[in-house]
Known about the structure:
This protein has 25 helices and 31 strands. By secondary structure, it is of the alpha/beta class. Helix 10 packs parallel to helix 11.
Amino acid sequence: xxxxxxxxxxxxxxxxxxxxxxxxxxxxxxxxxxxxxxxxxxxxxxxxxxxxxxxxxxxxxxxxxxxxxxxxxxxxxxxxxxxxxxxxxxxxxxxxxxxxxxxxxxxxxxxxxxxxxxxxxxxxxxxxxxxxxxxxxxxxxxxxxxxxxxxxxxxxxxxxxxxxxxxxxxxxxxxxxxxxxxxxxxxxxxxxxxxxxxxxxxxxxxxxxxxxxxxxxxxxxxxxxxxxxxxxxxxxxxxxxxxxxxxxxxxxxxxxxxxxxxxxxxxxxxxxxxxxxxxxxxxxxxxxxxxxxxxxxxxxxxxxxxxxxxxxxxxxxxxxxxxxxxxxxxxxxxxxxxxxxxxxxxxxxxxxxxxxxxxxxxxxxxxxxxxxxxxxxxxxxxxxxxxxxxxxxxxxxxxxxxxxxxxxxxxxxxxxxxxxxxxxxxxxxxxxxxxxxxxxxxxxxxxxxxxxxxxxxxxxxxxxxxxxxxxxxxxxxxxxxxxxxxxxxxxxxxxxxxxxxxxxxxxxxxxxxxxxxxxxxxxxxxxxxxxxxxxxxxxxxxxxxxxxxxxxxxxxxxxxxxxxxxxxxxxxxxxxxxxxxxxxxxxxxxxxxxxxxxxxxxxxxxxxxxxxxxxxxxxxxxxxxxxxxxxxxxxxxxxxxxxxxxxxxxxxxxxxxxxxxxxxxxxxxxxxxxxxxxxxxxxxxxxxxxxxxxxxxxxxxxxxxxxxxxxxxxxxxxxxxxxxxxxxxxxxxxxxxxxxxxxxxxxxxxxxxxxxxxxxxxxxxxxxxxxxxxxxxxxxxxx
Length: 783
Ligand SMILES: O=P(O)(O)OC[C@H]1O[C@H](O[C@H]2O[C@H](CO)[C@@H](O)[C@H](O)[C@H]2O)[C@H](O)[C@@H](O)[C@@H]1O
Ligand SMILES: O=c1ccn([C@@H]2O[C@H](COP(=O)(O)OP(=O)(O)O)[C@@H](O)[C@H]2O)c(=O)[nH]1
């Protein structure tokens, strides 16, 4: 499909959906006639060539899913995802066999998504837009970006997105979320669905949600609210067709003397048809005067007949119709006209136009187009729309409709009464409001808005990507390491060398990643390599974790330094006032006790409260409270500084940051090791706070205008446990290409390179250890 964007440029749009917008009719042995239709569906296993040919004329390309279709569509899409998305939970029969079935269905779902990708690959040209529709295609955004990350990818969810409490029961929850987050733009019908989605991402993936969307892999995936619409003019015109007017007249005659309430729904659990009948039954019960003056016409379009839950629903609904018609019917009239069928679009418009009330009782519904269509057809009659507050349309048409909670039969019954008795003026006013909305929020506008948002989101994301530091060039890091004579490796501890996320012990103790043991030993034993752990953590923690290695430890951001074979020396100014530390410990303990899975660490010069493993929303709210408390004054006279991290609140003595200390540390190391050759290679990596990232630029400025290369001023003396000495030698001889600063999991950083997680650093360290010619046996860590 061709599309002219806001700049007037022609772009090709590939709309990818589970359902083709056409219905097929066999017209000969090998020929098919196809008609555009909103709810079109046909069996794609029929003659492929004939169907493809006819579809090509309508600019449609089929995807032949063949044997995966049933498991993908009836199985995973409609048996698992549909109920979860509509707050109905996972199927209850859970045993060995059903789990096996779910796994097969999930595999079929992924396979079907790949088959869509294959067809897109055959048709995609540079610059085209790919718009993925609905829950059937949640893997497609990721597959598309893996194939070519320059494709503009959008994803629209037509159904609701559930609360995270429901979504998190889904076994494949993270994989699916990550996959849709690969899109440039994600959109929903309502703000509530968008809010649920962003919350779910923050809670399940631990990513950051912002005003614009979700921060994922160093860029923002934009999330917007764009409710779909209909083509109002098509309905308005249809109502004026002579054959439709004829049908209207027939219907009016058929129901003469009666008010008509209309229901048009697929026979789906989400549509609340039993609730509609129960509300109607209550109305008939309580309003005997209306019994022979009213009829409820319900078109119950058959759907997903292969799914067992839908078969059960049909039986339940039929029982209810039988009971109510049995109770209130007579020889000449039946209160409910229930039809298990679909009707053609002309007849549907005639029904919409002659009805007095439209009754929509969805228990949960993405939007509900039927309510828009009813409004479009009511220009003459000004009928009343009773609309479930749980349908997405409730947000847009709520102003003119009577909103109901379909679970509350009394409310439904009262709304029916109110609608039937509503004076013309009120009906007119309500209709005007809704008609205006339906006219101005058309499907065309929806499509146009989505595409301009997508173009915009893509351009912005390209800019973000350009600002993102480069991926670490592993081979280069290793090769240059092998060729260097005096290498320095500076590593953070928390989030760099600690055990990976989710495997922290109950006590939240910070522990060295066991995968690193052999690797670290090999690196530290190499005479050409100096390894420094530069951490905000205190001396005890570093001693506990690194005691067995020949390594340099810089605790409290460099305030204390030692080689593990020696004693700690301090670089702390003598008159530093640290009285506030003890005073604040109770405050940090208070927040830790009240925030499950948060922890705090106190050292001599700082306190840190960390909520990275707690519920993110709750953690953030608690962090705000803690900050407010701290800003209110307890440290206003102390020389301490409050810093907010991504998932932490830290108070530290002013000046205690990594960068100012690194010069002293280097001087001390050079002196102690009695280095004779300058350092010619630096690998520096950490999960640092922004304020500590100056350590990366420290080396950049050393490369540009070397200061340390002639004389390092350092306070150094191990005898009195404080650093106080001048070091005169060439400390650094660092070339641009031998410096590798690497931030972990940061979108914005002062480092030259980024890696996704500490796994990458662990992996790299292992490779450096192996590249080290003097070491013979290093076991490969399992990362
Ligand atoms: O019949 P299916 O292929 O199983 O799919 C069900 C329907 O899905 C789509 O409906 C949803 O989208 C509507 C428009 O955004 C929205 O109003 C509704 O609330 C959703 O359930 C599709 O548009 C229908 O044709 C399908 O029947
Ligand atoms: O006999 C029928 C009844 C309904 N529809 C169409 O099916 C769509 C139903 O959309 P809605 O958003 O209300 O619910 P969904 O079925 O998509 O969940 C509407 O466009 C109706 O015009 C139809 O084509 N034939």
